[in-house]
DNA sequence: TATTGCGGGCTTC
DNA sequence: GAAGCCCGCAATA
């Protein structure tokens, strides 16, 4: 039974969770003998102990958009989640995914970001705040103590994952590259035309400089502008695509950034890091579609379930999988033309659907009040904000594929999933995130460039994947690549 | 220009 | 008193 397997792998889970400590303890566990691999998407009431030289931990990185919060304790860095920026019109990208942007950390930048329109449908952008910690944003705590970096998360994100920081940065840099390369090309063309003209007429009468003619490109210099994650040619033919770029006065000079796929990490269906478990009735929580999703069938309700039948477990908790489910239902709902956003009470807790335990009417990923302390992965008794005791949450039976995991402790289960070697679950697939994939390997960070630096090379590799390859082939290639490169 | 970390100060419970 | 939040500042990329 799967339970045995769960118990077997449970010991491989977060080392930080094995020890009894709290971020506010006067003394942290002395000289940890083990360390956890860095987790980009911590979720739930979890604790990790990272090596002191873990770069990502040193930078207090997170896939979630976390802003600094003053906790009046200089020893402990506290961050709270900003949520995710989505299209207020709840539109679907041509591939069936939804726009889920990373909120700007800076307040000003975030306000500016929200004033922008959805690049897909021109609706307003909406910030979905995180209320996963008793109605408040999920908080992350970082503490450097000795040679270890202690991490503690409190709350379960009740919203989809935004674009990760590295993806945002990569997208921006890719756009800048596109702009600069296109400008250079344009300038060359202009110069060559000027030369031809001069040669032909003997004198130059054009008073416009080439740089002036390039002003039209400035519209793209705002790299915070959300770029659609569309590698598909179909999208480039779509009305929305035309509307977007025609409105930008680019009828003649449309840069085909998505077609060339300079950085598939940006434009290709979003990698969700780490493992993917193929689980019917679960979908990927990724804000971007999966590589192998058959978009031609996306409008079929039944097929939708299967085609998206994946469970991203790169994050730590089952919560993400809950999000996946609700996301899918969200998709179904929108497909049916119903209102996407529903009622929400003051505490950010939502009505559960009668048809699905995780469905929520307010937003796709606001599910069943898991945002509330009513049913987190672990039922948390908060004595104070910083002192948290854990009680086993008597959860409903959670189904994974054909196996049923009667989860005594969802958190440990999620850890197990997160840490499960591929061999344990035949259906576990490796997706295409360097970060989490790397985590399956021994500590080799130090000799490697940072994630951001790795993106390009990685993306070049992914670009080279033949589109006709089936997903399994791609996964195998990716896995091979990661083992070689990371 | 945006991010990040720090810290003062206010409010709520 | 703990915690959440807002704000400003400075360093940095």
TrEMBL record:
Residues 156-179 are annotated as: Disordered. Its main location: nucleus. Keywords: Developmental protein, DNA-binding, Nucleus, Transcription, Transcription regulation. It is found in: Nucleus. GO terms for molecular function: DNA-binding transcription activator activity, RNA polymerase II-specific; RNA polymerase II cis-regulatory region sequence-specific DNA binding. The keyword Hydrolase does not apply. GO terms for cellular component: nucleus. InterPro entries: GCM, GCM_dom_sf, GCM_large, GCM_small, Tscrpt_reg_GCM. Residues 19-174 form the GCM domain. Pfam families: GCM. One of its GO terms (biological process) is intracellular calcium ion homeostasis. Residues 156-172 have a biased composition (Basic and acidic residues). Coiled coil: none annotated. PANTHER family: CHORION-SPECIFIC TRANSCRIPTION FACTOR GCMB (PTHR12414:SF7), GLIAL CELLS MISSING RELATED/GLIDE (PTHR12414). This is Glial cells missing transcription factor 2.
């Amino acid at each position: 039974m799967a339970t045995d397997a769960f118990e077997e792998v449970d010991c491989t889970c977060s080392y930080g969770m094995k020890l009894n400590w709290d971020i506010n303890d006067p003394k942290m566990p002395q000289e940890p003998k083990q360390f956890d691999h860095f987790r980009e998407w911590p979720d739930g009431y979890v604790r990790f102990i990272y090596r002191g030289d873990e770069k990502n931990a040193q930078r207090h990185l997170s896939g979630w958009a976390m802003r600094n919060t003053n906790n009046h304790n200089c020893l402990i860095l506290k961050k709270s989640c900003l949520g995710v920026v989505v299209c207020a019109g709840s539109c679907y990208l041509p591939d069936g995914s939804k726009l889920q942007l990373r909120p700007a950390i800076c307040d000003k930048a975030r306000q500016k970001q929200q004033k922008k329109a959805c690049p897909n449908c021109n609706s307003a952008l909406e910030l979905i705040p995180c209320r996963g910690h008793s109605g408040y944003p999920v908080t992350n705590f970082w503490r450097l103590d000795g040679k270890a970096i202690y991490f503690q998360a409190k709350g379960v994100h009740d919203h989809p994952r935004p674009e990760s920081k590295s993806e945002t940065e990569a997208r921006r840099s890719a756009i800048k590259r596109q702009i600069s390369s296109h400008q250079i090309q344009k300038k060359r063309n202009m110069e060559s035309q000027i030369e031809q003209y001069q040669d032909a007429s003997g004198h130059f009468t054009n008073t416009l400089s080439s740089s002036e003619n390039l002003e039209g490109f400035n519209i793209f210099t705002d790299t915070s502008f959300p770029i659609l994650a569309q590698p598909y040619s179909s999208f480039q033919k779509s009305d929305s695509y035309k509307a977007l770029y025609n409105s930008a006065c680019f009828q003649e000079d449309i840069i085909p950034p998505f077609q060339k796929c300079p950085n598939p990490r940006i434009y290709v269906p979003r990698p969700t890091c780490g493992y993917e478990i193929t689980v019917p009735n679960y979908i990927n929580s990724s804000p971007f579609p999966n590589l192998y999703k058959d978009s031609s069938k996306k409008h079929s309700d039944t097929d939708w379930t299967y085609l998206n039948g994946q469970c991203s477990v790169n994050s730590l908790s089952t919560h993400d999988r809950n999000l996946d489910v609700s996301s899918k239902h969200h998709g179904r709902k929108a497909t049916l033309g119903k209102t996407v956003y529903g009622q929400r009470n003051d505490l950010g807790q939502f009505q559960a659907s009668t048809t699905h335990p995780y469905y929520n009417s307010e937003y796709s990923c606001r599910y069943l009040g898991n945002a509330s302390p009513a049913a987190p992965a672990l039922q948390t008794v908060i004595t104070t904000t910083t002192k948290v005791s854990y009680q086993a949450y008597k959860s409903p039976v959670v189904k994974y594929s054909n196996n049923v995991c009667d989860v005594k402790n969802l958190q440990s289960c999620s850890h197990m999933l997160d840490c499960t070697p591929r061999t344990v679950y035949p259906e576990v697939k490796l997706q295409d995130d360097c970060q989490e994939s790397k985590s399956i390997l021994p500590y080799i960070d130090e000799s490697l460039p940072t994630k951001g630096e790795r993106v390009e090379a990685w993306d070049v590799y992914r670009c080279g994947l033949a589109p006709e390859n089936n997903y399994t082939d791609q996964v195998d290639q990716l896995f091979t690549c990661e083992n070689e490169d990371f």
